[in-house]
Amino acid sequence: MRIAAVLAAFAFALPAAAQDENGALKAYDRAVRNMNESAGYHLESKIGFEMGGAPMEGGSVEGVIVNPGFGHFKVTIAGNTIELFKEKDAVAIHNPQSGKWEAQSTNQTLDFFVKIFNLGELLEQLQGDAQKAEFGETEEIGKRECRTVEFGVAQATLKTLMEGKAQAGLGVTPENTTMTVKAWLDKKEKLPRQIRIVIDVELRGLPGAPDGEEWEDWEEEDGGKKKEEGEGKKEEDEEDEIPPMKVAITVTAQIRNYGEDLKVNVPPAARKVLDAQKTTETEPGEEKEE
Fold first, then answer.
1. Which residue of 74, 75, 125, 199 pairs with 249 in a disulfide if CB–CB is 3.0 to 4.6 A?
2. What CATH number has the domain spanning 2-223+243-275?
């Protein structure tokens, strides 16, 4: 699935440290640290997707995050809702077909959504190599007055983001990708209330096609079959008539109810799946033995 492949291309792992001339990143960093030092919060995320300017069905993530590293979520993809628990890197997913709890699947789209569950870690990392960080206008989220901070992610950071990922067949590179971030920071409580991440990609190759094959090498009206060698080929001096395919992914996360209603009951079958994925890491609040 092309959409799943493009979504899965983005596994957020960005470096930290950036110049901050006007204090915007300092305010952002303080709010994110306050968020991660809280007992927990409730998350509601919407993911919008466009390909070639046409809106495609995205998805949503709703749930509760208990610091550090625990979460209970309901993920909706293509109209289907999946329940899952996440504890550090361990995931227990409820399979609606079998009714059983399973370890994290190889579903690429779901893998993309799972990255959002590490929201606190993600927001700490996003400020790395920030470009043009600045304060925006004051806006309200609900009844809360928020100061906005906006910044772009540097190409060097995008390169780090994509290292080790399966990009070759997708046509996604740091050169054809941009990422921007907007954060709404509660002026009174110094906490993030909403985050928006926009990822724009210009695809010149056909996602999933071998390297070097362009959009015009494929005959869409003929069932997506590849043209025979020489068939429909352009002259070398002929201009490219097919524009790049533009892909846009927008993640909008609202963070609510800090410290409220954080008790989560984990079914025994789900707990068993989570525990089976543990290595040598200790439980939250436990100390490692020397």
1. 199
2. 2.50.20.20
47-56, 171-180, 275-284, range with the lowest pLDDT: 275-284
User: In this predicted model, which residue has the larger pLDDT, 116 or 9?
Assistant: 116
User: How far is C-alpha 258 from the chain's CA centre?
Assistant: 22
Instruction: Check if the beta carbon of residue 53 is closer than 8 Å to that of residue 164.
Output: no
> Does 88 score more than 80 pLDDT?
yes
Helix, coil or strand: residue 263: coil
Contacts with 245 (C-beta within 8 Å, 6 or more apart), sequence order: 51, 52, 202, 203, 204, 215
Single-letter residue type at 265: N
For 112-121, 207-216, 237-246, 269-278, which range has the lowest pLDDT when averaged over its residues?
207-216
Q: What is the mean pLDDT of residues 219-225?
A: 50
Sheet holding 90-94, edge to edge: 101-103, 90-94, 80-87, 70-77, 54-66, 40-51, 245-256, 192-203, 177-186, 144-153, 130-141
